[in-house]
Amino acid sequence: MTARARLGLVAGLGIGACTAVQARINGALGARLHDGIAAATISFGIGVVVLAVVFSFSAPLRDGVRTLRRAVSDGALRPWQLLGGVCGAFFVASQGLTVAALGMTAFTVAVVAGQLASSLVVDRLGLGPSGPTPVTGVRLAGAGLGVLAVALAGLGHPGTAGGLPISDALRGGPTAALIMLPALAGIGVAWQQAMNGRVGAIGSPTSAAMVNFCVGFGALLVCEAALIATTGAPDTFPTEPWLYLGGLIGIAVIAVAALTVRWIGVLLLGLTSVAGQLVASLVLDVLTPTEAGLSGTAIVGCLLTISAIGVATRSWR
Fold it and tell me: CB 3.0 to 4.6 Å from 258: which of 20, 79, 208, 286, for a disulfide?
């Protein structure tokens, strides 16, 4: 294993841990605002503002954006490859919509299962910058274990009282309906990582983060505008500064992931980030429990997902 690959593994673990912390922050903000979409919009908006300030002081970063523009004009980069931010927006929105109701651990297990399954397809199609990777029986077995882990995680949550009006339509049904949101978000994460990796390879990791945040922010603005038109805007905004750190964490996650995916591929990036998410989410559920708490089935689901990681990693080794 090369030094770059080892660095990529460590970076993947850090990405996962940061993602779990970001999910807890955005989930708390969504619960305080009673609007998960508003929490995601604020998170992305802060990211766009911070990146705009950074780009205004850096000529090399602006050159990276101009390089991306030329790549789109020349056909080296397709316009649809710039839309990874849509999946990022959905992922952050799912944090605000479901973390308070499901708990951090169940949310992470759902994301993990979707991400593992999607990574197989993304790597097979060669959508990422590292090229195509065949789907093997070992990798399929790992993804199957991850899907089973989602089912186990959902069994331990008889109710979904998260206090978020946007999820009212789901409260009357089974928890499986609510847990499908982060599972779908996980599917999008793998595709987002592949697209951001391609954008970062042509421009720069920071340019990929800027494109990701601008696209995601635009998508969320449309959704939030429609929501405000029907239910109204949040009455008050919390004053605790830590509730607004999700966007800053997101910048680091997107930029580092855009670089790391070129070193170790989409599936291995997903596996290492999954490990970081699981460890961090278990710690967060123990130290700062949500209304859903930490159930035994959620722990079993995490252990099963770790087993899925081990199985799938055998193929990489």
Answer: 208
